[in-house]
Structures are given as C-alpha cells and as structure tokens.
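Handover notes (outgoing to incoming on-call)

Open items:
1. ATP-binding cassette domain-containing protein: sequence verified, structure written out, both below. Nothing else pending on this one.
2. Nothing else urgent.
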Amino acid sequence: MIEVVDLTKSFPISRQQRREQAAAGPPAPGAAPAPGAAGASSLQAVAGASFRCLPGRVFALLGPNGAGKTTVLRMIATLLRPDGGRISIAGVDALADPVAARRRLGFLTGSTKLYERLTAEENVRYAADLHGVGAADYKRRRDALFAALGIDAYAGRRAGQLSTGMKQKVAIARTIIHDPEVVVFDEATSGLDVIAARAIIQLIQDCRARGKTVLFSTHIMSEVTMLADDLAVVHRGRLLAMGGLEEVLARAVDERGQRRTLEDEFVRLVDAAEEVRT
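ATP-binding cassette domain-containing protein structure tokens:
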C-alpha cells in the first residue's frame, strides 16, 4: 500500500524566472496571484496532496503536463524529499527510512536510463544484485520476464545499441526483478510505439492480478479507462477530484443530466480550477 498525507513541495525560482514574471506584469485586479508570481521566491509544485493506493488495485494520477504528477511520484520513490507531509510504502515510513522503502518499491519513468555500456542482461542483473536477489530467484524471474517481454533475442546486446522500445522493456525488467510490493510508473508509455506501450500496460495488469500496489501517472485518458480502479485528477499541485473510476464517472453529470466522458469531466475540473484562480 501507498499512503500519502498532506504532501507539499516547493522549488526556488531563479532570478531569470523572476525577471520573466515581472515582465509579464501583475495579475488582473481581483485575481489571485499565481504560484511563483512576481516577487515570489519559490514555486509550489505540490500543495497538500493526500491519497491511498491499495494492494491489488491500480491508482492513476491524471493531469496535464506540469500538474505536479512527476514531483509527487519522485517524492514517493524517495528521489525528492517533501517540504511537509508523510509517505508510507508498504508500511515503511519513506521519510524516516528511505532505503527500506526502496526495497519494497519499483519505479519506472518514460525517461529511464540504462547503463549503455552494459548489455540488457547485465543491466537487469546489476539491479538484482543491488536488491540482494539470490541466484535461483534471479534466474527464475529473469527467464519469466525476458520471455514475457521478448528480451531474449537481444539480451546480450549493449543497451546503447537498443531502440527506445527495447530499452524500455529492459527498464521494465530491471524495475521489477526484485519482485517489489509496490510499483510506480511515471508517464511510462510516453513516446513509445504501440508494441512497447502494450508491454507496459500488460505489466500493470499482471501486477494488479498478483496483488501488488500499482500507481501510475498519465495524461492519456484511454490508459486511465483501460487500467485504473481509482484515480485522482491533479492540477497545479492540487487534487481536484479523487475516488474509484466508476464513482468519479458517476458524479460526472452535466446540467441536462447526461453522463460526461472522463475527458469532458477532466477538462471541466481543470477549467473550473483556472476560473477560481483568476
């Protein structure tokens, strides 16, 4: 399980950014200042996010680019430290003991890098060694993953010689070779061809079937409707809506009583949030 409570994170604003904001001028009369507005020294990327991801279910963070999704996931993965709030990974306090949290976690992004001078097999084996996976467990998991992902044909090739889709498949195997209880995907299908994207989607479905906790971020509506059991809509670091997928869709009714699509409801929520700001 993943539990996030009142998570906040801000980043300092450079002098150049402050000059650009000053050049843009002050907000209109009566308008609320934007995060990082002229005169501010920091930008609030996440503002009081709280949610729970349960075992055997897939939780989607849905939001436009720049919404704060990646910042949230990097804090969960212990790559960033929050300014405030709490994070629990499979019962481990990720702030107090990030090393123990990482042992229970697999984290994959759309920009995951491999060691290009190592082969596909060596990249995966290196990750297994870091997590203390024994030889027998490694061989069993390696054989199953490489067969499922179609990696065997290029297992001995250096990662620098692989295509983007091939690299992402190797990154998938590396992410879950230690059989983590919790798996986090950050825009993991972005920029991939259909076959590589399908491999990730299949992995998410397999992880759910095995009772793992799965959290993924996306701005692609079809991925949410295909995969998500639960979701949260994120915009400018704030959660605008949250609940089970069917529950959120059931609330998405227009003034005529017609059911909105997820895309329509998403746009409505974001537009409403922007109207409140201005």
